[in-house]
Amino acid sequence: MLERIESRNVRYAWRVIQRKVRLRRRLRSDFVRDGAIVFGATMFANVLNFVIHFALSRELGVVNYGVFGTLLSALTIFGTPVAFITLVVVRFVAEFHAVGDRAKIRVLSNRILIFGASLGCAGVVLGVAFQRPIAHYLHFSDSRVVAMAALTMAIAFALPAIRGVLQGAQDFTRLAVSTSIEAVLKIGLAVGFVIAGWGVSGAFLGYVLASAVSFAYTMFAVRRHFSPEPARLMIDLRRLMQTTGGIVAGTIAVTLLTSIDLPLVKHFFGASTAGIYVAVTVCGKMLLFVGGFVPTLVLPKATAQAAKGESAASVLRQGIGVALLFGVAGLAFFFLLPGLVVRITYGAAYIAAAKYIFAYGVAMSLLGLTNVIVMYKIGLHKFDFVLPLIAAVVAEAGGIYLFHTTLWTVIAVVGAVNAAALLVCCLRIPLHLPSHIMGAPVQPTGSSPASR
Length: 452
Hints:
Elements: H1 2-28, H2 30-78, H3 80-98, H4 102-129, H5 131-137, H6 144-151, H7 153-156, H8 159-168, H9 172-222, E1 234-235, H10 237-259, H11 261-268, H12 271-284, H13 286-290, H14 293-307, H15 313-336, H16 338-345, H17 357-379, H18 386-402, H19 407-426, H20 435-438, E2 442-443
Helix pairs in contact: 2-6, 2-9, 2-14, 3-4, 3-8, 3-10, 3-14, 4-6, 4-8, 5-6, 6-9, 8-9, 10-17, 10-18, 11-18, 12-17, 14-15, 14-17, 15-17, 17-19, 18-19
């Protein structure tokens, strides 16, 4: 009897030891460590961004804050192409970094810098030239704020793409420092200049200086990944266009799937109901926001594994696992305390949104998983997700157009379409795609396996 008890105790102790070993391995994994860095930096920057708007909305007043917010939204729209360029940079730098081709990273970084700076300078020239007509159209009393807003484009068009070099090289610590520097300086400078009485122009001047300091640090950090000598960079235009087209189409489709329901609800429902739905979508998209760091990790890591001819399946498993972890945790909070979520986010006036946020959160969690798979496939140069995602956008718009009797039916359409999009994107997931099958985006210098 004693021997049997001792045997059970030994087996139990052995299982406990094995669990601890597996847990330590997971905690030591690059994905978990890098994920913690990116998540922490992203949350830190976004919290500070909220604080900036909280402070500026009170210091500027309703009218001037409206001017600031309008110009900031315009810059976001005009800067959309930069997001696509950044993903292309991440994709290519990850390949070069995986095979140790630092000479190509140097040349690509310099070209991206020149291209981004050229776009930014063109934006500044246009903004200054048309500041009066723009100010007149937007009913601004001072046209100089348009010129100051345009000045931010000189750096804002180049900074994200240069940060893409750090992301592609998986230098997530310096990437986190770069974003944190910008966020901290924006609070100190933008808010400080507004308090000093410089108004909206001062706020944008603070943004310019904060981005400039972050840009200087980022360039210093990027140079650590350069070789002493550059190399010829022979771009395969067909492959470049295929990669860019896939990234642009996939990113736009995912973006539309997160937002196309709002204008349709505004059209078919009354103002009060549409306002409640806005609160529902903002709460639901918190799950996308919290887990948004996962695709940032998946793209460069999957690209690097494939470029080395190794299986990237572990990257996908970890990405989906982390996304599910955050999604389930968020959904549990939505299910147990929906009223608290709405009150904290919007206040008691929007409490009618509480009954919808769990269902909408499920739909957004499905879309978050889809985005992880999309980034994984981009990393492996597989773009079979493009047409299904475009079809999903059409299906969601058509479904809401046909079935919009209540907000429940709208949310059901959104959830069903996102589930179908996830299912289709999961089909034919490449778990192992050697680099000689992928093909190289550029002509290698000889250090890359693709040169053979």
